[in-house]
Amino acid sequence: MIEQNMYESALIDWNFWGSFRIDYIERDYDIGRLVSNRYALVLYGVRRAGKSWLAYGYLKRMIEGGLDPRETLIVNFEDPRLYGIKAEECLRILREYMELTNAKNPIIVLDEVQNVKGWEKFVRYLVENRRFRVIVTGSSSKLLSREYATVLTGRHIDVEVYPLSFREFLRFKGLEIRDKVDALKNESRIRGLMREYVEYGGYPEVVLEEDTLVKKKLLQQYFYDILEKDVTRRYGIKKYSILLSLANIYLHNISNKVKYRKIAKTLKQHVSLIERYSQYLETARLFSFIKKFSYKAKEVERSLRKVYVIDVGFHYNLTLKTPKEMGRILENIVYLHLARKNLKIHYYTTKAGKEIDFVIGDVKPTPVEVAYELDEEHIRKILKALEELKSKDGTIVSWNEEDIIRKNGKTIRIIPAWKYLLNIDSKKAV
């Protein structure tokens, strides 16, 4: 049981009607239209991606727009003063808040709610009451849809929060790109910052940090925190050394196909353990896996997976690199760009065995190839993919090249990565 004065002080310290203040840089998430008293908005995602600050920033923006601060409530369940809190005690906090503020229709942020056992029932109570608008945040490894779906059926909307996109990254660097004119005026600086994005990725705290040594240390800490706190503790992993080795294998092989059986043989483990640990890493959002595109379901399921990491800063700073790494890093960045759009993503293999990095969609599949150093082979194989997929348009994301190729009724748009990531001059690009 938590003493009343403890949670009262926690409320005052973490709320805008108390002493809480933040400097917030806007993210490209329009969560306002999803906040409702009919369902809970669940913000989940990899550790340190900015879920909490996205919620806090929304409240700040609403207050600046005229909302009475007393109509907002933040409960940060990572505050040590709330350690060990139970779901029933959340009702005491709610009553205390309502007495302090006399709020009518508050927006409630339950931050890192997975720390409260039985939190789902408390959230359901708030939603069913229809008096409250609820935002829930938590790390994805602990906030799994299948764990709360049975309690919150039809009463929640999920939004995955990623590390910064390239557009958000530029904004955090003080460069707002609103249109093509802004982009062209600042092209030289954008290209320079693209290099930094490749090296250190998009974790907000890393982007804002100026000291390169601290950047590296933060990325190392994030990586091992995810492995230890979001995977090992969560699933009771007994073979941490195997988990670490598996994560390092994937980290070194981003944008490559991986073979579970080969990895199992390398690590001298059963393939079922490798598959299970891989699933845990994916659930924690540290890595993602995509399958081969095919209209045959069996072929899709039997295909090898390609692996991508949630932030390329991990790969660049935690592995040994060669000059050839840039192509795979760029491909991983493009994957994350597509994943943020919540698209169906596969890779494709032509009948001649040539691999296309991505195919977007399934009804009208669009091939996307990534080529750090563009050559004729990239053009030939995407033309072949367009023919086999019966598609008209394809995209090649390059580092510098820009062109449009039209051949045999097919159109290939070649676009520099920085323009592609900013959706500049890319009418046919995804």
Q: Considering the protein shown, what is the CATH homologous superfamily of one domain?
A: P-loop containing nucleotide triphosphate hydrolases
Q: Report the radius of gyration as a whole number of Å.
A: 23 Å
Major β-sheet annotation = 6 strands, mixed
CATH architecture of one domain: 3-Layer(aba) Sandwich
Q: Helix coverage percent of residues? A: 40-55%
Structural class: alpha/beta
Q: What do the pLDDT scores average to?
A: 93
* Separation of the first and last Cα atoms: 53 Å
Enumerate the strands of the largest sheet in spatial order, edge to edge or round the barrel: 9-10-11-12-14-13
CATH topology tier name of one domain: Rossmann fold
Structural commentary:
The structure is a single chain. With 430 residues, the protein is α/β, with parallel strands linked by helices. Among the domains are: 4-161, Rossmann fold (3-Layer(aba) Sandwich); 322-430, Trna Endonuclease, Chain: A, domain 1. The chain has 18 helices and 14 strands. The strands form 3 sheets. It has a 6-stranded mixed β-sheet, sandwiched between helices. Strands 2-3-4-1-5 form a 5-stranded parallel β-sheet. Helix 8 crosses helix 15 (312-318). The protein is globular.
What's the SSE blueprint?
Elements: H1 4-13, E1 40-45, H2 51-64, E2 72-76, H3 87-101, E3 107-111, H4 119-129, E4 133-139, H5 145-148, E5 156-160, H6 166-172, H7 180-185, H8 187-200, H9 204-208, H10 212-235, H11 240-252, E6 257-258, H12 260-267, H13 271-283, E7 287-290, H14 297-302, E8 305-309, H15 312-318, H16 325-340, E9 345-349, E10 355-360, E11 366-371, H17 376-389, E12 393-398, E13 403-407, E14 410-416, H18 417-421
Parallel strand pairs: 1-4, 1-5, 2-3, 3-4, 11-12, 12-14
Antiparallel strand pairs: 6-8, 7-8, 9-10, 10-11, 13-14
Helix pairs in contact: 8-15, 10-15, 12-13
